[in-house]
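A quick aside before the break. I want you to see a complete sequence-to-structure record at least once, exactly as it would be stored in a machine-readable document. Don't worry about memorizing anything.
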Amino acid sequence: APAKEAPPVEVPLCFLIPIQHAGAIIGQGASILRQILQSSSARIVLESVPQPVPQSYTERIVQIKGSLANVAAAFKQVVEIIDREANKDKEDKAAVPLEILVPEELVGHIIGRAGAQIKAIKAMASGAVEIEPCTHPGLVHSFNAYRVLKVTGTLEEYALIASTVHERVTTVVNSSRLSIPDPIKANVESSLVLLLPNNSIGGVIGKGGSVLREINHRSHATVEIDKAPENAGDDDERRVTIAGTVEAIELAEHIISSCLPQKGSIKSVLKIPAKAVGHVIGKQGARINDIMSLTHASVKIVQAEGEDTADTIIEGSVMNIVAAQRLVRQIAE
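That is the input. The structure line, written in tokens, reads:
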């Protein structure tokens, strides 16, 4: 019998809304949210915000899941509520910009070859269309795991552009069978190893360990550096182990990178379950090749016989490594 095709991956539409309007979407006793869910058959998740709410939280992530049509129906209702709330009791209506979260790995697909896709999106809007860094506090330590597609225009234009972007991202994810990071999903504790040249470790440790303490403090990760073996040469590798949440690890990686004398290629080792090796590699290496193509990092998996885990050796710039690690984690989960 022919092999069954894998079911299509359901890709959520994620965007930012002004935090003061979140309550209007939820409604008393979640009454408004239930109405949207029932009429659209979509599923909506709002980002949980720390309490008390920090001043830096001016926006909240909204994630809509379901079929393309159901997501579009729910999105339309959400932006209509936001527009109504933002312009309540105002004589001169002001458009609330649409801010769609686009995974960093897929931004190139939104821009398109020679900018063809982004030009088509700009033609749909009466106002400005820009791709900007993501500064949302809940995502900022991901170092642009997401970018923001910011659009100014009418509600009708927002609906058209959101549907276009959502369909494009869904098509790319399903054709490549890659997973994308979830901006709302809680981080889990993890660890990885960086392999750094012995002659660069001093810059990471600092005088009396001052730099290392600062890295731990700023990233909220735990960074430990193996002692150098006797007669270690400048080019011999030292193991730097980073433990903490995924976000904390990624932040520590970027800080460590800024401490290195040269900004060239570095190497990391990420452990994954042995049973996940086949999923990461994919049929005839298709998935691991996709990871390397998307992130421009070198990725190799080494598995010792009888071991429960395998080493994923990733080499490249820190930005390349972080992007590749994120994809490998998503697939290995």
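Two observations worth writing down. The two ends are 29 Å apart (CA to CA). The chain has a mean pLDDT of 86. We'll return to this after the break.
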